[in-house]
Recover the amino acids of this structure.
């Protein structure tokens, strides 16, 4: 039988051992959970199960490393796309910043509405107006100058609601997913309707995705000699629209392999997910569903930006993974950097 | 003083030691020479010097691994392009193979000339005829079917002079160069005027260059549903011509970084080399000069295929590397596989 001191020592030891093992279990969980910002549940499990299935050597669904191609949308899938795409906010700011060189814009739509901060008038200019704004702000300069302009803008422009840099409004759970995929031999590509040169200005630093793995919409460039030095000049002419059916077409043009993993968030991703699903082996199709008006935004079928309607129905019907932002994501954004 | 046996033993030992060290020196040289099929001299040395300069950590010309982008032409740079591009030989064979489905071709140029083996008539149809032949043989099928057709053709079609498979007519020195670059952290890309889907059918197996690192000319594809399955159908419409100024434009569209190393062999590579040379740091520009009519072909300024005129003058003027096939290459082709 234990005496008093002996008992106390014994209990203290037990307690210490218990705490130690608890700490060790927690530490191990933190070490081994590759997706700590995802709540446990079927969504997270579907990702873990897929990666386990295709990476286990000798297993029936094993996929060799070079064929582990993951294609992931950007706006609304890797970062915030509301209330307007960051790239469109950039274009609007560029119209304002260069207006002194274009006196005609004061009376010419859609520029007049932008300069008068008349969002209603801007909206009234419709898709035609959008195209004019993008052409006016995305052409007439060299690719190098455009790259610098985008970087300069991203370094200072703040999101209207969150008041932080756009590159701070990336989704922490998706960053973890990208890292997890890469740690398992996947090559991660962005496949986005956004402008390829806009995205390349930040994708490497922000997502760890190098320029050559960024696929997007683009304009024609023209090789010219300026002061005996070659430059590529951005022309006001569409080269490729990487949206909807353009996504599988772009995947074929730029990658030349079919992805086995694809993630999107809108109807513009539907064909990319269908194309991925139609591969021969096991494949993973995922959608981010924006359901969290408090921490981010809640929108789907009727949204002007990032409309998710047909792709949602197809995902439900076919059992694709739907990441419900409110329920599946423990945190939305990485710890703030620019907003102390 | 050594007695007779002693002396003999001593000499034998010396001899043995001498031989051993000679053998060891030769073995070491073979082990450490990354370009054994290149003759020693300034051409080979320029490659070795460049790679040493950009890979030595802390040196003034050091380039971080992700920026070590190498872009290399295919026809005439990595494999034989004479007397006609392999892809054109493929197209001609496809016209013959599918002629029964096109009775109108019997009287319709340029198809009638092909079916009559009338090369003069074919040549008379000019570029317009070429385009018609490529369109007729490179569209109207799915990307998957086209890939299979190319692979099947490459497995059997023989080069008219060398009587071996086209994929046996790759340049051993360039294979060594690709391996050497990759061993030094370079990402090797093909940037060719040839069809991207044609090249992707063999580039991985033949050159160790995966589909996503092959850039070439291409046609528009169309996303369609066939029997409820998505397919990409090749359309008779040009999407991108990756030749001349199209090469830097394609490098920008598909890679989004400027190469630091580029190799070509014709005027179609001029702008790619200029674009590479215009980068900020140290860069390497090289041309294969076909000077060996005995072992391969000798051609440059007046050649119909692979004309090398302005780019040669520019290379000489600017001190770019010129690989003189006859003098710089110890061997041309890898040990024969298909031709026993």
């Amino acid at each position: 039988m234990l005496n008093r001191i002996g008992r106390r020592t014994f209990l203290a030891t037990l307690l210490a051992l218990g705490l130690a093992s608890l700490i060790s279990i927690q530490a191990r969980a933190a070490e081994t959970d590759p997706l700590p910002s995802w709540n446990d549940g079927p969504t997270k499990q579907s990702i873990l199960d897929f990666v386990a299935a295709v990476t286990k050597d000798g297993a029936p669904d094993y996929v060799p490393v070079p064929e582990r191609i993951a294609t992931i949308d950007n706006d609304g899938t890797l970062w915030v796309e509301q209330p307007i795409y960051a790239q469109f906010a950039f274009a609007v700011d560029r119209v304002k910043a260069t207006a002194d060189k274009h006196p005609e814009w004061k009376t010419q739509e859609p520029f007049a509405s932008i300069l008068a901060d008349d969002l209603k008038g801007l909206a009234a200019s419709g898709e035609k107006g959008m195209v004019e704004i993008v052409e006016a702000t995305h052409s007439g300069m060299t690719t190098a100058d455009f790259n610098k302009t985008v970087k300069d803008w991203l370094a200072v422009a703040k999101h209207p609601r969150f008041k932080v840099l756009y590159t701070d409004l990336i989704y922490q759970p998706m960053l973890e997913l990208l890292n997890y995929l890469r740690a398992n031999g996947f090559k991660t590509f962005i496949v986005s309707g956004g402008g390829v040169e806009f995205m390349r200005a930040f994708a490497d630093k922000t997502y760890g995705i190098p320029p050559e793995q960024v696929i997007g919409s683009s304009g024609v460039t023209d090789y010219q000699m300026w002061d005996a030095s070659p430059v590529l000049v951005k022309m006001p002419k569409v080269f490729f629209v990487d949206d909807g059916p353009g996504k599988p077409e772009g995947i074929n043009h730029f990658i030349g392999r079919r992805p086995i993993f694809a993630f999107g968030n809108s109807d513009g991703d539907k064909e990319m997910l269908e194309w991925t699903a139609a591969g021969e082996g096991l494949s993973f199709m995922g959608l981010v569903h924006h359901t969290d008006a408090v921490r981010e935004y809640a929108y789907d079928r009727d949204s002007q930006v990032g409309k998710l309607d047909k792709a949602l129905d197809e995902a439900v019907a076919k059992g694709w993974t739907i990441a419900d932002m409110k329920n599946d994501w423990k945190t939305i954004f990485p710890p703030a950097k620019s907003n102390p």
Notes: The radius of gyration of chain B is 24 Å. DSSP finds 14 helices and eight strands in chain B.
